[in-house]
Design goal:
CATH topology of the largest domain in chain A: Nucleoside Triphosphate Pyrophosphohydrolase
Oligomer: homodimer
Structural class of chain A: alpha+beta
Radius of gyration of chain A: 20 Å
Shape of chain A: globular
Largest interface: A-B, 73 and 73 residues
Strand content of chain A: 35-45%
Number of domains of chain A: 2
CATH superfamily of the largest domain in chain A: Nucleoside Triphosphate Pyrophosphohydrolase
Largest sheet of chain A: 4 strands, mixed
CATH architecture of the largest domain in chain A: Alpha-Beta Complex
Strand order of the largest sheet of chain A: 7-4-10-9
Order of helices and strands of chain A: EEEEEEEHEEEEEHH
């Protein structure tokens, strides 16, 4: 069933930057609905694209990190991830962030999905990168304000922790969601599913 | 396996509001790491809490909405959702937003999970509300700048659309992720799993 109504696209007009920070801009953007008399302004947050990495070890474990997060003022258990540098291929970012944060390096990497962290108020995307054959083989390279606990846990346990509410970062949960079909394929191939 | 390192909590000191919009504030917050000489400021976005609703019909379909999103300047297919009003119970918000956006009303509702849209730069939470027995029985009540296409699709199709990249909103994907165990239980009970 589908309703007959089709929402229209608004047309983007002028915009003004109202705040500028190290990791995002806030813009006031005028949008015009085709049926409305006057445009209206909406606030849009513009960060660079991000990556989140599902790193699978040869023993079928996932590599997770726990770190302090300033937005929630609390520790958070997550998949590794970070910011895509200007001009950088998100796949390269994923491999780089995994290596820098955890020292793990894989044998193959690919993008599983691209999501929007928040289409309502935010313009950027998050690329979900899947790294296979991940083993600890590089030196850690943490930024000055970063420090991590590195956890390597069986896939089933990582998924159970997410379902139990021990992983609450929306984008880390997206990474696990897009890893599920991959995991089911592997389980089926072994006759475990 | 777990690394011996334990990340420390930073202490929140002073903060200043640097931008104020209708739907979020941007704050500059000083945080002090216990081992660092000086505090450092980080930017934090403070929106109210949000809800996202998984609405299941008696025919085992999910109720989805397509709407124009200003952050991405594009149409987006999502689970219904919205902003928790001051003092409102998120469960009440979920039921209200579903009714206002789609006209669907259910027979039971509960919170499946609570996630953080972005622990790194954002303080708020999103409550995933599950509504069962949802049927179209109320009048639509759209806000002035809202209009929706309402789609009612079989659960398996909704999940397939998400995996295919037709649903990209991180929080809508979280809603589907937390609905999965519920769905698997129903499939198992019918001997379909």
């Amino acid at each position: 069933m589908t309703s007959p109504h089709r929402p229209q696209r608004w047309r983007k007009l002028d915009s003004r930057t109202v705040a500028h920070t190290r990791i995002f801009d806030v813009e006031s953007v005028d949008f015009q609905h085709p049926d409305h008399a006057a445009p209206r302004d909406f606030f849009v947050i513009n960060p660079p694209d991000w990556v989140n990495v599902v790193a699978l070890t040869p023993q079928e474990e996932l590599v997770l990190v726990r770190q302090f997060r300033f937005g929630t003022n609390d520790l958070s258990l997550e998949t590794p991830g970070g910011v895509v540098d200007a001009g950088e291929d998100p796949l390269v970012t994923g491999v780089r962030e995994l290596r820098e944060e955890t020292g793990f390096v894989g044998t193959a990497a690919r993008v599983l999905a691209v999501v929007h962290p928040n289409p309502a108020i935010q313009s950027n995307r998050c690329h979900i990168v899947f790294v296979e054959g991940a083993v600890p083989s590089a030196a850690l390279a943490w930024d000055p304000n970063e420090e991590f606990e590195i956890l390597v846990v069986p896939v089933a346990e990582a998924l159970a922790r997410a379902q139990r509410g021990e992983i609450t970062h929306a984008l880390a949960l997206n990474a696990l969601f897009y890893f599920l079909p991959e995991w089911e394929k592997r389980c089926a191939a072994r006759g475990r599913a």
